[in-house]
Automatic annotation (TrEMBL):
Name the UniProt record assigns to this protein: Site-specific integrase
Keywords, in A-Z order: DNA integration, DNA recombination, DNA-binding
InterPro entries: CB, DNA_brk_join_enz, Integrase-like_cat_sf, Integrase_catalytic, Integrase_recombinase_N, Integrase_SAM-like_N, Tyrosine_recombinase_XerCD
Domain of life from the UniProt record: Bacteria
Pfam families found in the cross-reference section: Phage_int_SAM_3, Phage_integrase
GO terms classed as biological process: DNA integration; DNA recombination
Residue intervals of the Tyr recombinase domain: 178-386
Gene Ontology MF term list: DNA binding
Keyword Transferase attributed: no
Amino acid sequence: MSRQRLTIGTFGEIGYLKSPNGRTIARARYRDWDGRSRLVQATGDTRKSAERALKAKFAERSLFQPAASDLTPDSPFPDLVTYWLEDLELEGRVSKRTLQLYERNMQTLVLPVFESLTLREIGVARCDHFLKQLAKQSYNRAKQARVVLRLALGLAVRHEVLPRNPMDHVSRLRRPPTIPSALTPAEVNGVRAAIAYWEAGRSISGPKPDGQLGAIVEVMLGTSARIGEVLAIRRCDIDVTSATPSIRITGTIVSHRGEPTTRQDHPKTAKSRRTVAIPTFTAEAVRRRLVHLADATPDALLFCSREGTPLTTNNVRRQLRHVLDLAGISGVTPHMFRRTVATAISQEASIDLAAELLGHTDPAITIQHYIRRNEMVDPSTAALLDRVFSKER
């Protein structure tokens, strides 16, 4: 039998023997993933049948074996999901919030479709069909499913369980055209009036307002900060005594499942850490809030519960929705104030200034997701056309 050097996944010259019962034994050395050459054999009634059986055994021996797990191409997909989530947690490169989001999206969007499949059964066509069907229901859900499916299968490729990631070849998802929504100045004042009416206690019965909601809205309008960033503002982040009052955005509020809500010492991105000069209406709201703030320490949160603990973003959203529903105003979310500010700055100054205020690294993000398009073409075109095509000419 040949002793030539084999590459991983190949076999040497096939030899044949007769078994005691007269059947033919075909055998050859096969170099496995670990680099060791092992003798593999199979039996058949004839040389041809024994050789076919031997080659079938070679085909079954997987070239792609994981480096540090028990996963194989025949492992159920849920086993990969469990291993992938554990690997993410060990790496520590994503936040707890992101990890929980990945787990939720995998459990609710992907696993119901893939849980009965083995890894080798998940190919490009299956993934492509799955995403297209999901995109018919929701582009955002399809996008979220694509992210977690690509990451999980990518781990299988890195650990050499699969030869390639089928998600690398699926069709590109097409985002449906959307127009960012923003409030007009009149609508902003309508929201202010509804909140003031509720905070004055003139609304229907319910928990007594503590006066924070109106101030939160004024800070969002004056800084363009995300709701979590606004709720994370501390005394030491505020300067309302200088000629140019300002607020420094240095953190955000996070709520991890099963854990108390806390302040995170950095905002969403590196560029989100910024100092923003605030307008008069925001400075006034902050001064009023500071007067009522019991905790005088530098790290005291500007907006907090009666016990001084952070407010949750979900509770503020819920309270805002409740107050505006009472006033017959619908569709207003905290993030809409961010788009409203971006639209105003873009119209009055420039896209670049709006992107800088929002803490975006790329103005294209601001244009696509935050600026409400002005459908009114520059009126100077009418005068130009009058000069060119006037009947008097």
